[in-house]
Amino acid sequence: MELTESTLLLDVVKVSKTYPPDVIALDDISFDIQKGEIVFLTGRSGAGKTTLLKLICCLEKPTRGYIEIGGNDLSKIKPVSIQKLRQHIGVAYQNFRLLPKLTVFQNIAMPLEVCYMDRKNIRTRVHELLDALDIIEKINVRTDKLSRGEQQRVAIARAAANKPSLLLADEPTGNLDSASTSRVMDLFQHLNSEGATIMIATHDESIYKKTRHRIFNLEQGQLQLIQTEAVA
Amino acid sequence: MKYITFILIQTARNFKQAWSSQLMTLLTVSLSVLFFTFFFLIYNNMLQAASRLGDELRLIVYLDEEVQPSLQAGYEKKIRDFSEVEKIIFISPQESFEQLKKQLGNDRDVLDDLDASFLPHSIEIYLKHDLKNLSRIKEFSEYLSTLPSTMKVQYGQGWIERFSYFMNLLRMIVLLSGTLLALTATFMVSYTIRLTLVARQEELEVFRMLGATNSFIKGPVLIEGFLQGFLGSILGLTALYFCYLWIQDHFSGPVFLNLFEFSFLALPQVLVILFTSILLCTGGSLVSIRKYVSI
Predict the structure, then answer these.
(1) Across the strands, what pairs with A103?
(2) CB contact, 8 Å: B295 with chain A?
(3) Which of A27, A58, A213, B13 has the CA that lies 20 to 30 A from A118?
(4) Rounded to an integer, what is the distance from CA A180 to the centroid of its chain?
(5) CB pairs under 8 A between A and B
(6) What is the structure's pLDDT at A2?
């Protein structure tokens, strides 16, 4: 599964998601993201941000509409291709989804192992990320022994480990102090400068209030563009 | 190469995570292999013994009168018409008497007052077939009893029948223990792997979300089954070899093992047992994978 050379990375077309019996999480939303963009997705808790991210990383299917990533229509690709596609998408989940019995190193190494990276490069990459997020001293600690803030940083490091083409971060600064928030945002900027497209779902105004990037707002399943990209 | 390295690392991780149930399964597979191969070893050796005894098996036809040399060719033809035989020997009472003396050894003096004429003329027929075909021997014996001048046909009916029944019993035990091995290996490995898969559901879920392919997730589980089969049969066969050495040490002597040469399983047999065990255990893990791992 390869992403096309087109500049359009993500195309969401008339997507709706309804949960039984009749809870409308997303209602006919459409937007696209170009390669190398950073986009913020804001909205209150329960607005549908997490649902949208789940649809993009193929954890759920839309009730209507379709989503294309790098030219691949997610509703038409085979399960094997979805797995290959997921290797290009890094996701930092709101509830972290870390494995508590594994160490920080083992958790961050997982996406790299999935791509069969050699052990030496895995070690280098994990150290690099933990240095950037200032938790290198916790490398051999089991993740259930970490604080929420530390767990959040490990989840972000795991999402970024594979240098994904698309990074989806769901409330990435929810448990962090301002210094850690700043480090996380620096990491995202660094990944973006290396070519990654980043979509950040957040209700933390401090991380997007001065941004020059596009901001979408989700309100009761409806999407609204509240800031267009500023011209430099 | 990288793929193999990762699969092996992941397999080692799986073993480490559920080492106690893995160890129990390994021991169960080993014991099943030992149980089956022990009876198979005995059966195998008994077959060899039967084959050797069969080489010496002969039917003796007692006659009520001497077969004149001119008629012997006719007798031979009639005998060979029914079955191919190794050799046919016409024995006079005098020759039987000498043979009896030899067999009595130091007690031969009991024959001092007797004359050879109390013994009948006889024909010794050495068979080509071994003891396995008891019904064929019976048929041959009945045929021989219809020859002219035949008084009686003897071939050690009693012990041949008992031996044949014993071999049938042994064959049944080998079949049952073989079935037990197959069931144990398949079900135990399947259930152990199923338990570890259930325990690892969260991990597998995360791996799926990170883009792990089918081969990445299923490969280590298959290797687990393969290793259970390989290590289990190696342990079982090693234990069997020590049993064999112990039997050699404690039962060899003028009475028991001198009757036949007690030998270990041949290399092809060992390889077939090893291969079958691996196949069954890998099959067991495949069953669990199909039920519990889906991408």
Answers:
(1) A142
(2) yes
(3) A58
(4) 18
(5) 53
(6) 58
What pLDDT does residue A232 have?
A: 44
Distance, in Å, from the CA atom of A92 to the CA atom of A139, rounded to the nearest integer, reads: 18
Cβ contacts of residue A58 below 8 Å, gap of 6+? A74, A82, A85, A86
Q: Confidence band (pLDDT; 50, 70, 90) for A146?
A: very high
Which of B2, B17, B202 has its CB closest to that of A118?
B2
pLDDT in the model for residue B131: 47
Q: What percent of chain B has pLDDT over 70?
A: 93
Kindly provide the ipTM of the predicted complex, given to two decimals.
0.84
With 70 as the cut, is the pLDDT of residue A181 above it?
A: yes
Asked if B76 reaches chain A (Cβ–Cβ under 8 Å), the answer is no
Helix (H, G, I), strand (E, B) or coil at B23: helix
A162 CB-contact burial (10 Å; exposed 0-12 / middle 13-18 / buried 19+)? buried
Q: How far apart are CA A174 and CA A156, in angstroms?
A: 12
Q: Is the dihedral of CA A70, A74, A79, A83 positive or negative?
A: positive
Here the tokens at position A17 are 């998601």
Nearest CA in chain A to B295: A79
Percentage of residues in chain A with pLDDT exceeding 90? 53
Which residue of A89, A114, A117 is in closest CB contact with B212?
Answer: A114
Low-confidence ranges of chain B (pLDDT < 50): 131
Q: What is the pLDDT of residue A230?
A: 53
Contact A184, A133 (CB under 8 A): yes
